[in-house]
Amino acid sequence: MVKHKNNPSSIQQDNAALQRGLILFNDHVNTFDYVIDTLIDVCKHEPEQAEQCAIITHFKGKCIVKTGDYYEMKPLHEEMSMRGLTVSIE
Asked: Of 9, 12, 26, 58, which is the most exposed, with the fewest CB atoms less than 10 Å away?
């Protein structure tokens, strides 16, 4: 049996390449229209998709609004946070 040493930078790259979800959480501050407009602008959703995500978030408490690797999700997370939405990357 051959043992391979894991290269720490290789592990970090592999973890970043994993698919992640950008999760939007419900709040009692932002309006439906604001959330929908933000999803259209930041995540490039179609209006119908943005509306569905806003509704799911409202009733379920959270919704995955976009998926991709960490490096794709990070700028979206930052922009949505700056706009006052509660989001996480998981």
From this structure: 9
